[in-house]
Specification:
The chain is built from 13 helices and 20 strands. With 446 residues, it is of the alpha/beta class. The protein folds into two domains: 2-184 and 258-294, 3-Layer(aba) Sandwich (Rossmann fold), CATH 3.40.50; 301-442, Roll (Archaeosine Trna-guanine Transglycosylase, Chain: A, domain 4). Strands 3-2-1-4-5-8-6 form a seven-stranded mixed sheet, sandwiched between helices. Strands 13, 14, 15, 17, 18, 19 and 20 form a seven-stranded mixed sheet that branches. α1 packs across α10 (281-294) and α4 (92-104) runs parallel beside α5. It is elongated and about 85 Å long.
């Protein structure tokens, strides 16, 4: 699924969705320092853009034609760490995000914010815009510590999908959460050399010392040193301040589940702010994985694993004669053809189709028989026989590609044009694949 990230910051949301198997086409933000960090960590474009200018932003995004828009509009005007005036101006960016989504109208969108947004009029306004566009909405507050993040950070998540009923993903999000919170020690293992650390409290009526055997409190955009006059709070889990220190900038980024080699650049103040503002990478991955699970693709198969299970061939129909005597009960794999391969399938001359590095676990690989290329914005028309299905390399089709870039490869042969013209269907899995039977295709049951 092709994705554009708005209000991308340094890239937590992008990286999480990328890890979940989505293709990030581009990202947009207006904070130059964050854009610089993003640029140094991703290969795709990041564009400095005033996202309050809805009209010009829409023009830029339309170039990418995304299947999904993701984003976390700035939350300071809603946050418990701010003055919580939703009319300060930044709160309006939530509405700007909704207007951009409504203008582009991708099949999916994901919006992240602080949980206090639930009490604001800006969310009501944004929700009305989404509903007027035909989106079904799932709204939830996730505690990141149940979603693979060693941090007790609550975030509002809204997922929109065109044509769905409201609440369509609630069960999936609930069932996929862990049964217990993740602690810092759970996540770091032996990578961290302290048992207790200082985190500056919002008031000295609260404790400032925390244990690595509990989730971190919310990582904020500031990281203050422990004052020399700090007095132990009754609930601090220590009896002495000896050896107690604040977490480092890198440790804070890793609690946000950024990888250790993620390149943060800039002043300490800017880096701390970026880290505090970011969506935890693993929380973003949790949401991306949950959408995949909803689409029927939970834990997709890696082609390396397929190679282990089928070291030679998955199926081999190479000895069968290609003719028009069709078996309506046989399985058909309908697959989106990437733009660089479309011409070969338009004229029926294609001999090979290759997939991405991962493949839906819901497809019955050893039952595959027919293949139908799906041409974007047109649909399906032509029927091929899968002569052989096996693990191969992208290099076979694109000589410039790495020979070790393993893919699932179908050796195919054109049978016939099944329909007089292209027939639009909805691809069911990742909006990229459908695994069905020839009978259902012919009878228009998909």
């Amino acid at each position: 699924m092709k994705v554009v990230d708005l209000f991308c910051g340094c890239g937590g949301l992008s990286l999480g969705f990328q890890k979940a198997g989505y293709e990030i086409l581009a990202a947009f933000d207006n904070w130059e320092e964050a854009v610089t960090v993003y640029h140094n960590n991703f290969d795709h474009p990041v564009i400095k853009q005033d996202l309050s200018d809805v009209e010009s932003t829409v023009v830029e995004i339309e170039k990418y034609r995304p299947d999904m828009i993701i984003g976390g509009p700035p939350c300071q005007d809603f946050s418990s760490a701010g003055k919580r005036n939703e009319n300060n101006g930044r709160g309006d960016l939530t509405v700007s995000y909704a207007k951009i989504v409504a203008a582009i109208k991708p099949e999916w969108f994901v919006m992240e914010n602080v949980d206090r947004i639930l009490k604001t009029g800006k969310l009501v306004e944004a929700r009305e815009i989404f509903k007027d566009c035909g989106y079904g909405l799932t709204e939830t507050v996730l505690n990141a510590s149940f979603c693979g993040v060693p941090q007790r950070r609550k975030r509002f998540i809204m997922i929109g999908h065109l044509g769905e009923n409201d609440g369509f993903m609630a069960d999936v999000l609930e069932k996929r959460q862990a049964s217990k919170e993740m602690t810092i020690a759970d996540y770091f293992g032996n990578q961290i050399d302290i048992k207790y650390y200082y985190r500056h409290p919002r008031s000295y009526a609260r404790r400032g010392i925390f244990s690595v055997n509990e989730p971190s409190p919310t990582i904020r955009g500031v990281n203050r040193p422990m004052p020399s006059g700090y007095q132990l709070h009754p609930t601090d889990p220590v009896t002495t301040l000896e050896g107690i220190r604040p977490l480092t900038t890198r440790e804070r980024s890793m609690i946000q589940t950024f990888p250790k080699d993620f390149k943060f650049i800039g002043t300490k103040t800017d880096m701390e702010q970026m880290i505090g503002n970011a969506v935890p990478v693993n929380l973003a991955k949790f949401v991306g994985d949950s959408i995949m699970a909803y689409l029927g693709v939970d834990n997709p198969i890696n082609v390396v694993d397929i190679k282990k299970e089928f070291p030679a061939e998955i199926v081999n129909h190479g000895s069968e004669v290609v003719d028009s005597n069709l078996d309506n009960g046989k399985n058909v794999l309908v697959s989106l053809v990437k733009s660089d391969n479309v011409d070969l399938f338009l004229d029926g001359s294609a001999k090979v189709y290759y997939t991405g590095k991962k493949f839906p676990s819901t497809v019955a690989l050893n039952k595959l028989y027919y293949f139908m290329p799906y041409i974007k914005k047109q649909g399906i028309r032509d029927l091929y026989l899968i002569k052989i299905a096996r693990v191969g390399s992208k290099h076979e089709v694109h000589p410039d590609a790495d020979e070790n870039d393993l893919r699932l490869v179908f050796e195919v042969e054109f049978i016939k044009q099944l329909f007089d013209d292209y027939k639009p269907i909805r691809l069911k899995i990742w909006d990229t694949f459908t695994d069905t039977t020839l009978e259902k295709i012919i009878n228009n049951q998909n």
